[in-house]
Fold this sequence. Notes:
It is a single chain. This protein has two domains: 257 residues, q2cbj1_9rhob like domain (Jelly Rolls, Sandwich), CATH 2.60.120.620; 91 residues, Recoverin, domain 1, CATH 1.10.238. It is 32% helix and 19% strand. Strand 9, helix 12 and strand 10 form a beta-alpha-beta unit. The longest helix has 53 residues. The chain starts with a helix and ends with a strand. It comes from Larimichthys crocea (Large yellow croaker). Homodimer. Its main location: endoplasmic reticulum.
Amino acid sequence: MTDNQETPDAEDTAPSGSATLPPLRPPCERLSCHKSSVCSRSYFVVVMVFFHVYIINVIALLFYVHYSSGQEDANRSRDTPSGNHQRPESGRPPSKPEFLRDVSLTRIEGIRVGHVQKVSLVPGKVHEMRTLSLKPLLFEIPNFLSEDECRVVMQLAQLKGLMESQLMVQDGQEELAKELNLSPEEIFNLLDINQDGQLQLHEILTHSRVRDGIWLTPENLREIYAGLKADKDDDGLLSLEEFRLLSNDAFQRFLMQQGVKRSQLVRNSRHTWLYQGKGAHQVLQDIKTRVTRLTRLPPTLVDLSEPLQVVRYEEGGHYHAHHDSGPVYPETACTHTRLAANISTPFETSCRYITVLFYLNSVEGGGETAFPVADNRTYDEVSLIQNDVDLLDTRRNCKKSNLRVKPTKGTAVFWYNYLSDGRGWVGEQDEYALHGGCMVTQGTKWVANKWINIDPDYQRQARYQQLVSQQPEDEDDEGLTLNPDIQSSDIHQDL
Length: 495
């Protein structure tokens, strides 16, 4: 065929005279066997290497675990006291037990201003609770107390006797000042809120009101400056040099010479305390039970809080804006848990988590409860006193407050003085809870306060409750636990 003739034979292509070569196999057939053999041998070597590495790692891990366990046992046996020999720290009393944080404080939601919830506080009756503000979280409950209950509380207070709510100098202030032993420079920097190197009128006013309990106006302060010749350049500002000229008791001596009127006090009222525990009047016990259901807090927290305070404001009586409880810092102790915490500190506050305020009568004129910065977008302490307008002054500027609650017999209002810490316990102070009693312009004003004291430090609160529960008179009580006995869903319902 033509194809066979054109295609030369492989053997014919060999040069003449050369040795005859063996016939060549196809390349693919010649290499397949060799390649398969090499691949199998390489795969086997790789597998064996990985296997030995794995075995070596396992053995090394076992040695490490064994060695570590041996070291821990040796350390434990070396630290364990034998015979009469003890570690140095064993001579100290055992550390205080840590309490598991297994409780969450119920906090009522305000939803929005004007929102109304149904509240079941007494059998066969439903109260309405209205949200007055969200900052602070503030509620109003009309007809919380009956007319008879209001009358009984006022009569019990009169029977026990009321005392002046405030003296000229706050108790303990002089001792505190001596204990701290602050230099004029330290006091100056403490009062200089904006740290501009000068003391403005409102910075001095804040200090005098807290320390001396005397409510001075900017005009009063200018008179004092002139009398003491403190403000030499008469600009209303005190430099450090001018401040050094004032002795610690300069203000006190000047005010004593001038005389202090009751209207110049931070608080102008009379008050007493009524015990609400076992053996107390049934009305007082009923009020405490109602407060427990209203706040939805464990009964123990309410039982171990302050007694009921009853206050009477005569005509002209007032209480300038204030916080019921101060901020709590690591160096601050709560009054109710201080002894149980066994700590010594010059800084102490009442730690009033909730305030429940009852109006025992309807006031003819004035006497509103004012919240100067309720629901403000921001809170700025410096801006409370500006251009001689003092929002803290409930005698002059009560009408400038953002919110005022008119006193009506039987009505209760309550608010939170602290925020939540986000984990079901007490957090930072709510600065928007600033409030005061407007001046009574006509008649008499009767109110009662029920404060619920809770330490923001859970360990101190739990230790305090454990200590109280060990007292003999409380052995029969069943409520000494943080677990609430009342199901909140059965008490509060939204309208």
